[in-house]
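Good morning C.,

I know you're traveling, so I'll keep this short. The sequence:
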Amino acid sequence: MIQRSLVALLLICAAGCSPTEPTGVGCLTDYRAITNSLGGSRARWARVGPLAYTFRFERGCFCPEDIRGPFLVRVEDGRVRSATTLSGAPATAQAMALILSVPQVFDLIDEAIDRRACSVRADYDPVLGYPTAVDIDYDVRLADEEVYLRLSDLRPL
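The tokens, ready to paste straight into the viewer:
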């Protein structure tokens, strides 16, 4: 009897759950708005963004400082070619694996929307359209799965 009641409850919940709603209690992401701003900013970047550029990249996480940055990143042909700390030391291999180019940051935001992350927030440069701040929390019930990125001082090469 308990199993039937549990199955019935799960079916009722599944029927009432919308695939467009975020998963988790306290999730407030407006996916339509974030998708629209992502699309507009990505289009602006495609029109006016440089193919080669440098920028400052920082990652917020509960992780070692050598992964967080800040880093001065050099991108050529759409690929991260190098990254150094602000003192000029090369980024570690582990940090390099986590440093993203601007198109990769756009893709990260898009993936968070597709995965229906609980919270997705992004700010964009008004001229070039690149993301300047990205905050993603996939599930408020979990710790240390959040993504916090800051990009600034983008300069064409």
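Safe travels,
E.
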